[in-house]
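Researcher: Re-running this chain for the archive, since the previous output was lost when a drive failed. Same request as before.
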Amino acid sequence: MKNVYPISLFVLFLLLSMLHFSWGIGSTWGIANALPTNEKGDLLLNPTILDCIIVGLVLLSFAAFYLLQSTLIKNPLAPKFNRIISWVIPSIFLIRAAGDFKHVGIFKPSMDTPFALADTYYYSPLCLVIAGIGYYLVLSLRPIDR
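Model: Regenerated structure tokens:
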């Protein structure tokens, strides 16, 4: 039972990394709602192939980290490094969920763009769930593991 949360994050990050890799090789599936736009529909970000690959690699490294947090394989990371990364990953997603107060996150003004709607109903809540599970995992570590 203690592997449910780390394996869930592993699978989630693995799927998200695969999506970013697919965008890196030219897929357009889901991209229309994945990039923030202003009210006129102008893109606020224009990621390159390299950007997509880098984000995919970062997400894949997060997946590997949470696989190491399970008991399925031995965790070779130093406890101090493990503790730091255990706090950093959920913090990244908590900050992403809060957003920039303009176009992204739960504190953005109400907007009716496709991205803003997807962000309100899917992306920001998903980031909150990732942050919540990540913080739960780090706070539930045995004191010796911290």
